[in-house]
Amino acid sequence: MSSMVVPVALWGPSPPTHHISCIIVTPDQNTIVTGTPDGQICLWDLRTYQADTLQLIPKALIFGHQSPVTALAIANDKWEKASIISTAEDGEICLWDSDDGTCMQYQSQLRGSHTDIQTFQMTSGLKRLWRVIVCGHYTDIFILDAATLEVVYKLESKIAPDWVSAICVTKSSLNEEGNSVIALCANRMMKNWHLTDESQEILYETEAKMLSNDNANCVRFNQFTNHAMLFVYALCWQIYDLESYRLLYEMPAKDGDSWIGGDFVDVNDISVWSQSGATYIFRLPKKCLPDTESFKNVSTEENAITLHTLSGCISQNTSSKSVLNFSYGSRGSFHKLIVQGNAAGEVRIWKLNSYSDAKNYVLDHDIEPIISGSLADPWKNPKTKPNGILDNLITLDDNKKECNVSISSTLFIADRGILICGCDNGDIYVADACVITLMQFLNHKQSSATNPIIHTMKRHNKRVTCLLHPYSDVASYDSKLLVSGSSDFMVNLWNIETGAWLYTFAIHGGGITKLFCCPQNGSSRLANCICGISRDHAVSILSLTERKCILLAGRHTFPVNSIRWRLNEDFLVVSCTDGTVYVWQIETGCLDRCISGTATTEILHICDEVTMVGIDATNNMISLSSLTGASPNQSPNIPINSTGSMLNLQDTSMIGIDNACSPTGYPLRIAAVKANLYDSDIQILLFDTESLISHLLHFDKVSSDELEDSQDEDGITFTTNSDSAKKPVTLLRQSQITYDSAQLELSCLHAWDLDPKLDEICIERLGLLHPNRPITFGILSKRRSLSLIIPGWEPQPPQLQLNIDEDISNATLENKSFVSYSHWMLSSSLTTQHMLAIISISNTLMEMNHTSFISEFEDDIDYSESNEEAEDREMKEVTRVSQIKAGWSQIATLHCVLLPDKLGKHNFKAPLLQVLARRWQHKCLEIREAAQALLLAELNRIGRDGRQQIIEVWSPHVPRNFDISQNSASTPMDGNAGTPTTMLDNVSTPQLHHSSTMASALPSPRKAFLSQRSSHFRKQKSVPSGIANKPDRNVSITVSNGGNLLQSPANEYLERRIGLGGIECGVTTTKSLQRSISAYEFRRRQITAIVMMGVIGAEFSNELDASTVRRNNQNRDKAGLPENDVVMYTGKALQFLILQQNSMQFPGNSTVRRTAIDLIGRGFALWQPYLDVASVLLVLLDLSCESASKMSPSNLSVTSLDTSRTARHALSLIATSKPALLITTLSVQIGRNSPLLISLMQSTPPGSQPPPSAIILFQSRAVVIHVMELLIEKASQEVIDLLVEVVNIILHCSDQIQLKSRNLPDSFPSLFKFSMVSFCSKSKRVAVGSQKGQVMVFDTKSVRSQALLAYSSPITALAFSADGRFIAIFSLSEAYLSFWQIGSSTNIFGMIGNFTPKCVKKCKVNTSKVQDSQAVVHKLVRIVWLNQKELVLLTNGLEQRFTV
Questions:
Q1: What angle do CA 880, 885, 888 make, to 5 degrees?
Q2: What 3-state class would DSSP assign to 243?
Q3: How confident is the model at residue 1318 (pLDDT cuts 50, 70, 90)?
Q4: Measuring CA to CA, which residue among 64, 102, 112 is closest to residue 86?
Q5: Model pTM?
Q6: Which DSSP string corresponds to 1100-1116?
Q7: Would you tell me how many other CB atoms lie within 10 Å of the CB of residue 368?
Q8: DSSP track, 556-625
Q9: In this structure, are residues 374 and 346 in contact, taking their beta carbons and an 8 Å threshold?
Q10: Beta bridge partners of 445
Q11: Which residue has the higher pLDDT, 937 or 875?
Q12: Predicted confidence (pLDDT) at residue 710 exceeds the cutoff of 80
């Protein structure tokens, strides 16, 4: 599945389970984050209103971890956009966006269970570095970079290493510039690490001390005084002095209770909470204050005072860890908040006042919570309660009353568009997925005769736990069979076409938890067999054809973790959660052996196939099959390694491979997730925009007759397996699914109620449907993580900017706001995804023949109508189609240009410019055009100041150095390719690196040419004096698909993040960028910076150039060379990408290269001073001539054709922007290779191997001719100035065979619109007059030329006589007409013996009626020969006759 996926959620009638196990508050106190043991993370919107009143609303639920969330932390203190870090029990660490819940980074290399994380800030001079400290069930402590989650260094122990129970980062009073880490270990040791130097990979503790207590739960540092620490144990809490580590005060827990956490809430006040749920606010004794006389006097008899008790605390937490958190606001209302989460999914908030003097308050006073909220609140409100996918469609048999059922299992057959739902009551429903979703979301009028429920299958009497359609996984199965498993211990076999029950397997002693297909490439006994697992830990192999159980493995004492196969030896290998491995003989059904210990690793490693089970895990992640978008008949066997089985949904638009012409994937897929094992399914509709566009274009080419011929009587058809003959799904059914998916996606994404007139067009003409309930969208990000908007969440009501003539009441806006602005105000990521989707689909439908979702003709055509009536009907139809196309155009315009103004800039989350830049040359043409239009519209919207800020943010990431002298260097390893990257040290014209592994085995002209150019530049390498080699500031990078790319010097600015027009960029400064920015992210930023600067330079060249000049005036080195010339380095970077040699890591048709080709053509006038124009033009010519004729069928792909199309477009742009430079460069190259080109055109083998440039020019002759035609049409004046060179280029690139049968005026008629060009059909010669007064006579047969110096001023007109012996030449500047005798037509150059062309007559011409304007003179002056001796000179209507 592509990166253009739009998820939409159907939550169902019951809320998800949310057992809160950890909770934090962002620094701005606008967001609360909770984690659960089921792996979800919930974002809560905490809104502040007047009088400091608060409102708590659940915002988004993130399905991000496959194991319990153990800890949460804030990654930075950014006000506008804080990041969240979470750790899971399986050792995974993730970085989340607190706005929309997208996964920004993840770390899965740290093995072990993490129990606590904290973030802290390190300062080094002016630098601010955010770090994450991680500890858990291991002896080491890891320090990570908060932005990339890469390990910076780790803390180890020399003295009694043990697991760390609690950690805390403090500011050392001895060394104020450093930080210290205090850790309490399980062996009662307190250890201290002093963090001063990051250059070391390992730091050891500087101090260790044995404590008297164990079972430490929490350590907190007094951020108000920087002198005290709070240690919370199960039996007591203690206050220690930070400098001497002396115990200052201790308070034991009450009988039968235990302390679990605490924090400092003021200078001398702490909050401590217990296992029972009680939370207390204590005033510490004066001996704990550093400024009092009794400080450090432990013998002072003074006890802590209980100021307050928090009432309403609930102890229903799922672990012994604290589920409370203290938050202190740093601005605004300066709130001191304590938040608590419980197992019921409820969050409560208490607000604390400042306790400066305890006498002013009533001691031991209860504080009531000021606000509380639950994840189940939206389901309790009838206005926000979401629907399930089967709601209002199921009726009870007794009273025919509608009821809402709870769906426990979901299966979607993508190529049929069929959704199968298993329910808690044991019923199974088969429904049309598109129709049923249209009914639940939109105002879809379903006819009473058509029921979306196709079949209802009743056989189970308990919860349906799993469904399996074997044919969707393996094509050898019968496509009619459906298998279901239930909690009633039964496995049922069904006929999905008829809904009939076929057989029941009653062999398990527990509820069925998983069903999957057996491998079909091994034993014949496993053919058409499935494997089932039950809650009694039994594994069965069931034959669907023989209707019997082949194997029942039921001696496992622990849950099954994975199933593995040894097909050659006929073994089934079962791995359990306790590490034990059972080996079963499939043939006999006997247990062969039971293995435990280290030998299990080798046994599991040598197995053939692996099936991941995880029966007790919740379905937190979108399944792999739901995301790939691949066709059915794929094996469900996937590696058990979690990192290998996850689909990384990083932005692949810059590295993708284009789709073929046939549609790929599915426009709609439906997956299911669960918050808890016993929860109902949440259906996720996954709209693949790229696949949808591909299908729409495909079916637009299919005629209606072909669709009707493929229609089956039953309407919905299934593939049947009869005598191994497969009947495919009908084209009509596939087209119905495609158009229904498009209608559903557009109806959900459209910004309704902002333009009533457009809404009317959408409903009445285009066939879109207005949503009848709130639509909850989602975002897919890295690791297949899914973030879903919770029903009922809406942003604070915006002030919509409506036109005066729009009569919309406030009540209507309030009721319909969820479909107009909610999803445009959540996050920039969501806005970008939705805008690209709706613009690209609208543009696609606008270009199609069948453009509306409404039937073309409501009534049958009356064929007896008259001709006038038929013509009138056709005109109406043409008008209707044009109106529909205009409607789609208005939708695209609304979302591309008008939407920010409609919503207001303060209410609109602008699209991310870097995401649009990465999709500048997306593999899908429609998405590419949408991204380009949206990026340019956004750049125009933010204005000049906004664009200048973009330049300031992204220009530091533009590469600076390019290597032409070294092919490789010793550099850090590239994480993607696994090979050393190339260090680029010197600044010069970038050339190609040699590669031992090339994409093609045949020699490539471009490869040879670029290698030749590289050698040439190595001989003549020059480095500007102002830029020296600085290896310590350079970091080599690799292009995102594995190829060598560019490098950039480290930044010297402070870390910052600028948000403007959707810009999100963190610039981190350290000694080496590779320590602070991951290799992938660093490469990605460089590519994005090149594209961003390239787009701004191409569209707003003056601003980029002005920014460069301004920066150069401020930043000049000692030699006077500008160090930050953005234009120069951007141009060199684009050239480097174009000239990069083809390799397996960097293919010639990659999206990155195609982007560089497009941008170098758009901004050629700006980049040209810094380019090797000849090299760039030759490479573009070579890329332009790549077509299907040069490629074998196996190598034919759309990518090469797309690259060729882009290169031709770039050449056209270069030709129109710098025509003289293009003509001169091509003329020089042709002049150098003229003899070789002539021999190649005449099919005469040259004496030696021709140079690559000659081969490129020969192969791209048609492209050059097309460029010359374009120049003659668009840049006539420049062509006139270089007309001799143009004709020389045309003659060298024309087809000689064609010229023999057709004259040059017939092959190239546009050339002869110029009066200074003449052709003699008898002698096959062409004469061209130049602006220097010279006439060049070319022989088209041999492409040789002869010069005639006729005048010293420009030639205005010339013409051959009929016999070719004379040529008349006229110069307007000198007002003379001369006759030249050039000899007999039988000789090549008109020379007979020693005869030389000579002027035989010169006549004065009256030029009074002709203005001397070179722009129009060639249109006003003509020479016409009347016979062999007489001619007429036409000068602006004046005829003058002359004779030889």
A1: 130
A2: coil
A3: very high
A4: 64
A5: 0.84
A6: SHHHHHHHHHHHHHH-B
A7: 10
A8: -SS-EEEEEEETTTTEEEEEETTS-EEEEETTT--EEEEE-STHHHHHHHT-SEEEE--TTS---S--HH
A9: yes
A10: none
A11: 937
A12: no
